[in-house]
Amino acid sequence: MEEEKEFYFKTQNLSVGYNRKPILENISLGVYKGQILTLIGPNGSGKSTILKNLIREMSPLGGVVVLEGKDINNYSSKNFAKQMSVVLTEKVKTELLTCRDVVAMGRYPYTNYFGKLTPEDERIVDESLESVAALDIAEKDFSQISDGQRQRIMLARAICQKPQIIVLDEPTSFLDIRHKIELLDILQNMAVKENVTVVLSLHEIELANRISDWVMCVRADGKILYGTPDEIFKDEIIRELYDIKNGSYNCLYGSTELEKKTGTPKVFVAGGGGFGVSVYRRLQHFEIPFSAGIIAQNDCEYTIAESLAVKVISEKPFEIFSDKSLEMAKKYVDIADYYIDAGCPYGIVNEKMKELRQYALKNNKIILDKPDDYNLRQIGENIG
Ligand SMILES: Nc1ncnc2c1ncn2[C@@H]1O[C@H](COP(=O)(O)OP(=O)(O)OP(=O)(O)O)[C@@H](O)[C@H]1O
Questions:
Q1: In this structure, which of 125, 196, 203, 330 has its CB flanked by the most CB atoms within 10 Å?
Q2: Ligand 1 centroid distance, CA of 36 (Å)
Q3: 381, 346, 39: which is closest to 205 by C-alpha?
Q4: How many CB atoms lie under 10 A from the CB of residue 171?
Q5: ipTM greater than 0.95
Q6: Ligand 1 contacts CB of residue 45 (under 6 A)
Q7: Is 222 in the pocket of ligand 1 (CB under 6 A)?
């Protein structure tokens, strides 16, 4: 990681761990103002431990954490709270506090000794509640709301603090997909529009890929990779990071596929244009090995076919399907008992697929057009 200009927030040779035993060493991260850094990695790899060291909840076993050129230990508590707000997963103990009260706690670095809120503070509390779409639950008892609602209130509290940097540990874990997207949208907005720096950990790597400027991969073996999303989100790196042996993760589409079924492909799928995707996944579901073709390598379903099919007959990007590919596809039709037509329309590029279907027909293959689950289950039973 080369530093051209001074990072707003960085670590230098940071070591973190428990009871004087390091679990991760030589951690070097750096973000500029208004950027988003996401920590990803398997359970127990140490993401929360790193975050706790970044927010002064734990003391590093070695190295330093630097905020705006200054060791974070050299900030007074109040000044540190004006710079940084934190959203952790731990449940906050509250007695008889409304959601509004909890959010208002975010203003304490700015209030006087008695903690009295000014009308301006009250306005910021309302604004923060509104930004997480929680005005409707503002007067509810904080201990009587759902996990997802609690997560949004804690974010509102952090926003209310008007920080320069916000640190969040798995802020999306209890949220449904709509609220996940909304939360990440709020963070992105804070970063891009208000120049707030965001450091967070996420399990949803496809979302990490969308919002991050920097990504830190924390591997179970203690190895750390740091880079831009383009450098980090490669199928190979992600597979190794999570030690995915059965199944696959596709970085381009953020899709997860279950384990490929191997064996003689008694089914041939004529796919293309995305029409084959659901057929491949249902064949996998019924544990039926299959071959697929002819798929252009730039077709949106190519990588999914590669993840699930025993064999994919493919064509180079943007090329009209060649005789050579057709001959190869015929070989796999020969092996198969079934020819599934996924319904991709014919055009200039894939005209040879008409010939392939004729070939299957002539060779007494059972032709199925867009089969449903009932058909697929029967195929599974027939081929054993
Ligand atoms: N208080 C503690 N004392 C000793 N070891 C701890 C403590 N808290 C966590 N650990 C250990 O430190 C390692 C890293 O834990 P950490 O919670 O940082 O992982 P994580 O990457 O955040 O995991 P997850 O994705 O499951 O939240 C784990 O092996 C864990 O068992």
A1: 125
A2: 23
A3: 39
A4: 26
A5: yes
A6: yes
A7: no
